[in-house]
Write a structure and sequence with these properties.
Blueprint (H helix, E strand, L loop, with lengths): L4 H6 L3 H31 L3 H37 L3 H36 L6 H13 L1 H16 L3 H25 L4 H26 L15 H36 L1 H17 L1 H19 L3 H28 L1 H5 L12 H11 L6 H13 L3 H26 L3 H37 L3
């Protein structure tokens, strides 16, 4: 198979590949989450109710993000394995299947959300801010195709090691959103609907840029020419075998957020939801090093698995955890030390000033959650890379939904610790679950190495 510098990088030393792939991914993810933070900052200026409405929409919005990242991970895994096996013809075909699937999934998800948005919001407990939530949500979910396709197409770029084209459009979308937010919300007096339009327009422009590279410039390693396409339902299945479980992982996290919002509403009301909405976005930024390294590990693990280099698979898993953990410790310390200063960015208006000490307290507790992420994220993404998306999904569900939710409920309600107990329960459940996840990936890789040795390979 003819190789370029990107392919040589991704099929070489796993440590170097992770280093090169992860930094741009982290940077682009930072811009995405910074974009979400800026959304919250600008909307916070409208008052606590619009900010709470954004909190109710966030888990639904993250379902779209989850499907984009999930299907992208499925395409990334399949294409990476073909590249590792030096089968470029099948890699090209898989990339086209990945693109077709992105269009179909985008349309289906958009229709579902538009039809069921209002009853979902009512069920989530958003009745008191339903008008604000509908104004924002209807616009965003009508533009699902622009939000969902870039991360799916980006998964194919990551598979071929072209990290620049995988991350640049997504970063561009975030920057455009940041610029448009104040213009639409305040200058044009569109309120929370302006934030929604800014959120939708940025990804649409980034998608056009991706299409330009693929269909006009045509200088990608993978070919999207119809002559390379042979419809194969097996490829759709292979993408979805990883993509659907990976997408459902985000659904699990979104459902967890819905439950946490509901529990917080019971113990403290909409103000607690607003605090959780603002504070959790900061925690999400703190998770970026681990998530970025884990995302890079999908491609590296897929190539190693396709080439049957299982020792490289072990190096990938262990090195990803090591690098992510070091970065996570640093981030955790920073968030704890500067929690009061960070909280001020969500409380600059008179109507939201009371949130500052509450957000600071939240950050001082929940920054510890970041320390668990490297173990769970790296393990889950390596499982995705080798095509075992179902295992990753089961482990994530056990970790992030069952354990976190059970401990949050027990400490928050059974032990009557209220809001503080809910947060402590999330920490306890997440920590135990993440360590279990990492143990599972070590056992799986050991099994592969032993089986290879038993067959004399």
């Amino acid at each position: 198979m003819e190789k370029n510098s990107n392919i040589e990088m991704i099929t070489g030393d796993p440590k170097k590949a992770i280093n090169k792939l992860s930094l741009p991914i982290i940077a682009s993810m930072f811009l995405i989450f910074a974009n979400n933070i800026i959304d919250s900052i600008w909307v916070a200026g409208l008052g606590a109710e619009p900010l709470a409405a954004l909190g109710y929409i966030t888990p639904l919005f993250m379902i779209i993000v989850g499907f984009g990242n999930g299907i992208g991970a499925g395409g990334n895994s399949l294409i990476s394995r073909f590249i590792g096996a030096e089968d470029k013809t099948s890699a090209n075909n898989a990339a086209i299947h990945n693109l077709i699937l992105s269009v179909i999934v985008s349309i289906v998800i958009s229709v579902i959300f538009l039809v069921f948005l209002e009853p979902l919001l009512v069920m989530m407990g958003a009745s008191s801010v339903l008008g604000y939530a509908m104004d924002y949500g209807f616009i965003v979910f009508a533009c699902t195709i622009a939000l969902l396709m870039p991360p799916i197409v980006g998964g194919a770029f990551r598979a071929e090691g072209d990290i620049k084209r995988a991350t640049l459009p997504i970063a561009l979308a975030a920057i455009i959103n940041m610029i448009l937010d104040p213009i639409f919300i305040y200058t044009l007096n569109m309120g929370i609907a302006g934030a929604a339009w800014a959120t939708a327009l940025g990804p649409f422009i980034s998608l056009l840029l991706m299409f330009y590279w693929i269909f006009v410039k045509k200088d990608t390693f993978l070919s999207y020419n119809l002559k390379d396409f042979t419809n194969d339902f097996g490829m759709y299945k292979d993408i979805l075998v990883v993509g659907i479980p990976a997408s459902l992982e985000q659904l699990v996290l979104s459902v967890l957020t819905i439950f946490v919002n509901y529990m917080l509403t019971i113990v403290s009301g909409p103000v607690a939801v607003a605090v959780y909405t603002a504070g959790w976005r900061i925690i999400n930024i703190g998770m970026l090093p681990a998530i970025g390294v884990g995302t890079a590990a999908i491609s590296v693990a897929g190539v190693a698995f396709g080439a049957k280099k299982y020792e490289n698979l072990r190096v990938t898993a262990r090195y990803a955890v090591k690098v992510a953990l070091i970065a996570s410790i640093i981030v955790c310390i920073i968030l704890n030390v500067f929690s009061n200063q960070i909280a001020l960015i969500f409380s600059y208006s008179e109507s939201s000033a009371q949130l500052a000490p509450l957000i600071a307290g939240f950050l001082q507790i929940m920054c510890l959650f970041i320390l668990y992420v490297p173990f769970g994220a790296s393990a889950g993404n390596v499982f995705q890379g080798v095509g075992k998306g179902t295992i990753s999904f089961v482990l994530t569900t056990f970790r992030e939904f069952i354990l976190v939710l059970i401990f949050a409920y027990i400490l928050g309600f059974v032990f009557n610790m209220g809001e503080f107990g809910i947060y402590c329960g999330m920490l306890l459940g997440g920590g135990i679950g993440s360590l279990i996840c990492y143990t599972c990936i070590e056992l799986y890789i050991n099994k592969l190495i032993k089986e290879r040795g038993a067959h004399g390979i």
